[in-house]
């Protein structure tokens, strides 16, 4: 985005910004009296005074500026498209949606242009300015229309939808394959899953560093290494899974009847509510934590920290994996056997509450690296509990169906988390949003403990649902 120049009784420069009124720390007061010279490249001059005889796409603002008359018969129009303006930051007014700068001087092709004018013209320009604060507010786009009318939005929407469709299908298939390999030890699911954390953590650190390296000397971050590496890794992944041997199991004629019977059990219903809640809270972190880190860096106004922000975010994900997920994935089977699935469900929600609350009491985003150690309890242990409990309660030959239903509840939690999280972060900011969800997670943890206390949940032993159902029927007889 550029700026708008207007020629009314005097020449002014306007920078539109949706956050102009709230952004009271945009400029350094000590340098407000300093003269700043900015270069403008202008186009698409328009008249809003119908008495003036002018045309669109003129490069000069007004013939008064060029010491000629206001008409379209002017030679070398393109030579007048570059304008130098000199201003002081103190000669600026904020409105609710813009910064208005009153100029000290205007030069066109080295010729001083009078600041007073009688023309009703405006033009839109791209700006190049040595002042970093000026460039920051002038280069942030502020689209004021309906985003649904943009074709770019729909391209992005379809791309993201296709991506997540593929991800959900892949996860829904790989989890039952992993559980089949484990056979009668589903609580050891974490030992298999920890290898994915090696890849996720390692590449997060490497790609974060690579993005910062490719972005040196650039105004915006260069994310091309992310896309190129994604293509390369997808090709490697397709080669590996092509070598994977999958054993097909026989279909059970009573599968759907058994699956339907699951939802008559109160502890199964409570389990799926826990699944949706856990996915909801995890989505808040995965979708909004990096934005929150960027907000902290902006609030600190630390340029060195901003330059290596992607590396810091990569380190945060690396700690999530190496410091949190891998240890708890590896020891999740032992923890589940010692504490039981139901107690672990409450611990997961409690850890999530502590984790989100800690985000709100720090001022330096580097502390998030330490907080991410809790990802082992709030995510890794939770995923192991989810998959192993699903395997145990699944009717015979119905593991894929049960895990598919879990994926459905995961998607419900993800969707609600993205929608509500986006609204709260936009309306109230990161601190109060994370604090709100921390309180919500603590409340759900308390409800989970109460449901355990009153027998609404049940720890299933390491056997399939058919065996459990048979035992229950024998006890009733």
Automatic annotation (TrEMBL):
Any one GO CC term of the record: membrane
Pfam family, any one: MFS_1_like
Main localization (coarse): membrane
Compartment(s) of residence: Membrane
Domain of life assignment: Eukaryota
Topology versus the membrane: Multi-pass membrane protein
Family annotation (SUPFAM superfamilies): MFS general substrate transporter (SSF103473)
TM annotation in the entry: 153-173, 194-211, 226-246, 267-292, 312-330, 342-360, 366-389, 401-426, 432-451
Keywords assigned by UniProt, alphabetized: Membrane, Transmembrane, Transmembrane helix
Boundaries of every Major facilitator superfamily associated domain copy: 151-436
InterPro entries: MFS_assoc_dom, MFS_MFSD6, MFS_trans_sf
UniProt record similarity statement: Belongs to the major facilitator superfamily. MFSD6 family.
PANTHER family listed in its UniProt record: MAJOR FACILITATOR SUPERFAMILY DOMAIN-CONTAINING PROTEIN 6-LIKE, SUGAR BABY, ISOFORM C
Name the UniProt record assigns to this protein: Major facilitator superfamily associated domain-containing protein
